[in-house]
Amino acid sequence: MAEDKRLVEEITPMSVDFAQWYTDICLKAELVDYSSVKGCLIIRPYGYAIWEHIQSILDKRFKELGHENVYMPLFIPESLLNKEKEHVEGFAPEVAWVTRGGSEELTEPLCVRPTSETLFCEHYANIIKSWRDLPKLYNQWCSVVRWEKTTRPFLRSREFLWQEGHTMHATAEEAIEETLRMLDVYAEFHEKSLAIPVIKGRKTDSDKFAGAEATYAIEALMHDGKSLQAGTSHYFGDGFARAFGIQYSNKENKLVYPYQTSWGVSTRMIGGIIMTHGDDSGLVLPPAVAPVQVIVIPVAQHKPGVIEKATEIAGKLRDAGLRVKVDTSDNTAGWKFAEYEMKGVPVRLEIGPRDIEANQCVLVTRHNREKVTVSLDALVEAAKERLEVVHDGLYEKALANRKAHTYDCKTIDEINEALAAHGDGFVRAMWCGEEACEDEVKAKSGVGSRCIPLEQEHLSDTCVCCGKPANHLVVWAKAY
Amino acid sequence: MAEDKRLVEEITPMSVDFAQWYTDICLKAELVDYSSVKGCLIIRPYGYAIWEHIQSILDKRFKELGHENVYMPLFIPESLLNKEKEHVEGFAPEVAWVTRGGSEELTEPLCVRPTSETLFCEHYANIIKSWRDLPKLYNQWCSVVRWEKTTRPFLRSREFLWQEGHTMHATAEEAIEETLRMLDVYAEFHEKSLAIPVIKGRKTDSDKFAGAEATYAIEALMHDGKSLQAGTSHYFGDGFARAFGIQYSNKENKLVYPYQTSWGVSTRMIGGIIMTHGDDSGLVLPPAVAPVQVIVIPVAQHKPGVIEKATEIAGKLRDAGLRVKVDTSDNTAGWKFAEYEMKGVPVRLEIGPRDIEANQCVLVTRHNREKVTVSLDALVEAAKERLEVVHDGLYEKALANRKAHTYDCKTIDEINEALAAHGDGFVRAMWCGEEACEDEVKAKSGVGSRCIPLEQEHLSDTCVCCGKPANHLVVWAKAY
User: Fold this and answer.
1) CB-count exposure of residue A388 (10 Å: 0-12, 13-18, 19+)
2) Which residues from A are below 8 Å from B77, CB to CB?
3) Which residue of B has its CA nearest to A71?
4) What is the pLDDT of residues A248-259, one digit of tens each?
């Protein structure tokens, strides 16, 4: 059993060094590997399979809502990026530039897309002519590049995978509705598929997307009390449309500007899964996106009939639509237990000679190690029920953690006391609306404004910072 | 009906200008649009949906064969690209270079991946240690960039979408088997899903992939008598493994090099679909990858009950797993007929008041405009049968065209006579194996060696060029 121990010991405990614990899981669960390009990671089969399940669920939902996928170029000419003033100011400092093609210097540098608003706008200017052409509901799955200085797997990397929706509408109302609809899609996906509770809110002006009129986000609390912005949805008004000359003839035959949105989620969500559900034994995966939902481990597999039975019941579970793997390698059962705990497989199925004799097996749920013995005759239902138990258990645990680390505060002193007493978390406090107060809260307590939650409460009459009248409840936190 | 006419007339007839006909279809069927980045295209929803169906069929097949998807970085450091000598010589002249990140000049330029052998090898060197780690069967779906001078939609563009499989094996035999297995997968996909007959063959040395020991390809004959290389599969031996220091301990505990393959198909296949099946009315899509398989057009749709009935039967077809659209727009039926012929929808379903009264509808197959009247009670079976008729009809037509334009020749004079008499096509002729003869055939007749078909025949004893003994049957053609 020496090897089992080694495997588990290789993960730094969360309490010792949270950042190292996170990196350990990324590498030991074989989600990623480093490449020789700084800040660009290799997403390994196990990590990429999680992304494929995420894609598959979201893509289906986008299409149900009428969105169509397209593919835009990887490159943006400098002059095109420059067309919308705020946008270029936001992105130019962090883009990678192609200056040479083959053996020739380019006459105009091309940036590697950090986001594709400008490309979509150029195309929309070509194809939107009449009210009949609206709405346009486009989405793209691709990689984008942002030249970050400090990088961490999934959370911040120079290249990452994402989807970016870009839509055009006849009216501001429709566009705002789309912006909020997609925020809801992201929130529901996090809660129903990733078992991650989120707060939906609007960003303050200081934290808006470059060029947006309003940015909405979902924020999730991680194990270490920091907030992860897990998805954003932007309302652009007609700002880009004016900058790019996108006009259409409305029903009254007048030339007018359409209204625009964009929204995106990325491989960052995998970081969110790790930091919401993981523990000191490794990854814990929500069943909806787990590459393997049930790992079947034959016990005493050298005994006659064990491997055969394990393979047979795995086949039954697969036929019922579950993702199942049987590990018949010559590693010890103990090693296998540790390995698949590390990989976060939601349910472990153990079956040995005595179980077979009794027509039963043992199911162990990863998040709480609860063992239940079930009859093989009722196995499919039991396995499905156990997967639900894992999903619900993960969600409840994460919600309880968020509740335990959410502090209602009326002054900056109260913020500092709460953080000192209970650790980092979400601070809920009223705000007057002035950027100066946001800055001061951050300077004095370390937490920044994460969002103005859509579900508002009136905690007090005055701003947590300046004491002037306040109408906005803001959620504050340290952030990734 | 003026508009119908206009729509159809906008396509240049194939016989007038084949290249313009091709471009017209790409644009008018709304497959692509131009962007302001030369050689980089926008793949529009209709074109991208074809790609999604291609991906879905191939990805399933790859996974059935044990392959796993991964994601490698977009960038390759110059020093990494330089590690395998032949490889860098082949690709360096046509890559795009990132030289600036944010506001800083990079100390080492990064090329935008033209293909990812070097990245896979670097990773494999990290993770392949023991014979237990083999085989590694990885695949990646991504975009790649090659700085082409002249570009054409789908056929040759500076950025294109593809998949690249990269596998590592314990023995040369296993790797060669994989190389040929994936060539078979590509050939079967072309014939069964795209209705495109292909010739499987090995490339001559002058036409091998940079760094490969052997390159295999599938070649398809286009309408204009030129050949399209539609997919390639490479056997690398242990060349890259040696260059990248990839070694593993075999069962005898000796350090040895593994053997490697790579294989890929790209959005170029969409160009192949257009040039194999398209006609002067537009695109003709093979049913397996058609975004819309049946277009339902209500006739006299203002009459009561027509739209309702059309919508009802569309629902039935959808429930049977078909991809169906109903066009209830206020365009004329004639305009709609032309529009969906342009878009290549395999089957058109017409239903009007008289049809409804008679409990029937009309099905029209796109490729031959054959009309059949079918009872609504047997509609699902009839529609499925019509889709098979389209697939088989397309394949037979393409095969007949290839047979009519395949010429067995014994001398260069015979080649020139055949091409002059019957137009461009596949020339089958024996070859001695000398590159000088390949060059001379090309110089004197315009056709280059496309491949040495796996199915060999002995057409004559001597080389078509030099008259020396010859053992290789070669297929020659002009090529895209």
Assistant:
1) exposed
2) 36-37
3) B43
4) 999 999 999 999
Instruction: Please tell me whether residues A141 and A260 are part of one structural domain.
Output: yes
Q: Enumerate residues 92 to 111 of chain B having a beta carbon within 8 A of any beta carbon in chain A.
A: 93-103, 109-110
Same domain, B181 and B238: yes
Contacts of B93 in chain A (CB under 8 A): 102-103
Rounded average pLDDT over A31-49:
95
With bands split at pLDDT 50, 70 and 90, how would you rate the model's confidence at B4? Answer: very low
B424 lies in some domain: yes
Contacts of A129 in chain B (CB under 8 A): none
3-state secondary structure chain A: CHHHHHHHHCCCCCCCCHHHHHHHHHHHCCCEEECCCCCCEEECHHHHHHHHHHHHHHHHHHHHCCCEECECCCEEEHHHHCCCHHHHHHHHHHCEEEEEECCEEEEEEEEECCCCHHHHHHHHHHHCCEHHHCCEEEEEEEEEECCCCCCECCCECCEEEEEEEEEEECCHHHHHHHHHHHHHHHHHHHHHCCCCCCEEEECCHHHCCCCCCEEEEEEEECCCCCEEEEEEEEEEECHHHHHHCCCEECCCCCEECCEEEEEEEECHHHHHHHHHHCECCECCCCHHHCCCCEEEEECCCCCCCHHHHHHHHHHHHHHCCCCEEECCCCCCHHHHHHHHHHCCCCEEEEECHHHHHCCEEEEEECCCCCEEEEEHHHHHHHHHHHHHHHHHHHHHHHHHHHHHCEEECCCHHHHHHHHHHHCCCEEEEEECCCHHHHHHHHHHHCCEEEEEECCCCCCCCECCCCCCECCEEEEEECEC
In angstroms, what separates the C-alpha of A31 from chain B's closest C-alpha? Answer: 10
Nearest-CB residue to A68 (from B45, B72, B122): B45
With respect to residue B252, please indicate whether it lies within any of the assigned structural domains.
yes
Q: Answer yes or no: is pLDDT of A2 > 60.
A: no
Answer whether B68 touches A (CB < 8 Å): yes
Q: How far apart are CA A107 and CA A90, in angstroms?
A: 24
Q: Is B75 on the interface with A (CB under 8 A)?
A: yes
B77: nearest CB among A37, A142, A149: A37
Does the residue A398 lie in any domain?
Answer: no
pLDDT tens, B325-368?
999 999 999 999 999 999 999 999 999 999 999 999 999 999 99
Using a CB–CB cutoff of 8 Å, tell me whether A150 touches chain B.
no
Q: Which chain B residues touch A122 with a CB distance below 8 Å? A: 35-36
CB distance from A196 to chain B under 8 Å? no
Instruction: Give the model's confidence band at B8: pLDDT under 50 very low, under 70 low, under 90 confident, else very high.
Output: low
Q: Which residues of B touch A98 (CB under 8 A)?
A: 96-99, 112
Q: How many domains does chain B have?
A: 3
A7, pLDDT greater than 70:
no
One domain, residues A363 and A214? no
Smallest CA–CA distance from B77 into chain A, residue = A37
Give the tens place of pLDDT for each residue, A405-419: 999 999 999 999 999
**What is the pLDDT of chain B when averaged over all its residues?**
96
In a domain, B396, yes or no: no
Domain CATH number, residue B438 = 3.30.110.30
- The CATH number of residue A60's host domain is 3.30.930.10
* Residue-number span of the structural domain to which B255 is assigned: 14-277
- Residues A269, A296 share a domain: no
Let me know whether A29 and A146 are in one domain. yes
Residue of A nearest to B66 (CA): A45
Q: Are residues A89 and A187 in the same domain?
A: yes
Query: CB within 8 A of B63, min separation 6: which ones?
Result: none
Whether residues B260 and B298 fall in one domain: no
Q: Does A463 touch chain B (CB under 8 A)?
A: no
